[in-house]
Amino acid sequence: MKQILTVIVTLLLASLNNLQAADTLTKRPNIVYIFADDWGWGDLSCHGHSWLKTPNLDRLAGEGTDFQQFNVLNPVCSPSRTAVLTGHYPARYSVHQHFAAPVQNHERGMPDWLDPKAPTLPRFLKQAGYRTAHFGKWHLTNAQTQGAPKPEAYGYDEYEVFNGGAGWPAADLHATATNAATFINKNKDKPFFINVWIHESHTPHVPTKASMEKWKHLDEQKQVYAAVITDGDNDVGTILDALKGAGVEDNTIVMFSSDNGPERTAMKQGPKKSDPDAKVTGYDTYYSVGETVGLRGRKRSVFEGGVRVPFIVRWPNTTPAGVKNNTTNFTAVDLLPTLCAAADVKLPDNYKGDGENLLAAFKGREISRTRPVFWEWQGTKTEPDYWPRLVVREGDWKLFLTEDGKRSELYRIPNDRAEKTNLTKDHPEIVSRLTKLALDWKATLPKKPDADCLTTVLDPVKPSQPKKAANNSPMSSEERAKTFDRWDTNRDGVLTLAEYLAGQKPNDLLQARFKNLDKNADGKLTKEEFAGKITK
Question: 152: which of 350, 410, 411, 494 lies 20 to 30 Å off by Cα?
Fold first, then answer.
């Protein structure tokens, strides 16, 4: 009898523990991260824009906290998103710029996709019992890249993406929010994490007819951009409505942000492209009139206009409503540890992130970072806003450097949001200390990408010059053979790399194209490798 009672008590305790565990899991907050594209800090009416209207984002800000010192860790898409996903600086994975075609990636010293072995936020949450999904833009590889890992390799249960790998199913740009809403309704009885990475306001601009009609009183340049912003704001509304309809809005963290500052505005209007069903029309960057509200720089610049972006957090009964937080220096690498803490998910002992757990800031407390923040940029290098290669921020001080550290500019944030007053001469000791911090950090970065993240299938390429025959038609194999003979200056029947380069206008991709044509990798091109089989 005693043994039977012992068994019964043991079973009851086990059942109670299971119920408590299930109850704890149910109470964990859902997490929805709406990540816009090229959406400037000033592109919200609640940030003071004079003609754009964003009622759903204004509502989100009124019901949550607007963190006004939030920075992404790169001024373009792919590395910025890498930081969000991994909690690491993107340069740790050699992701320096956006993922392009493999030839271009290799020229830049980049991989062809984000390392699937990298620690990721969705994987940590999935392992803790969350359902995970990704809807919308991917761009952690490129549409011309074959063999890239799919989202499930990074911890997602479900996904519907655009800007994925070669051969991936194409997703509708305007279905991102509705796909997420469907997922919310389907998973309302269990904790979930969703990335909703919307297209707006990236080019090509594809505004809906309804949004274009709403802004028809504006000139065309403003009309297109206002319509695009309206479509993105409507996506936010779709998510908020879905959460309310599913009865889970009070237990859901909703965040809105952008991957970098606004795109440059082209000086002249380019061609328009209409889709087959004529529901939307695509426009070029002439319509990219996003605002930084006086912040210096735009997309591709590590000054504030390129990396300070909107960050609004709503978490009912936890995050203060209607608050503007202008003191917390929050960054993209802080999201992983902060959200895992919010979900009561313990990070693995071997995870060494670059961010900090700033959950206290979500709860309305004043908190200061204890770590410096670093940026590395290897893209556009022009004056006056795109020259820095390295940046470090510590407290309110932000130092910009060339790669060798010999040129610098020092600003105090947030006192000088526009980064106009260079204080290098006034504070040489701060410049010296921060320069050492930045250069020491750079020394920890890999020199080349992981070989496992490089495709061996390069995109199809052709020699740059001449591309077409005199009649503007594609060159025949006979014409290419004649080009080969002209470039083969020593008449030995093969083209060396030097001969190949000498025959064409300078181009950063020529060496990669030479290697792609060199099928047997012997360092020389035969006429057949260069021109194909000659037809008579």
Answer: 350
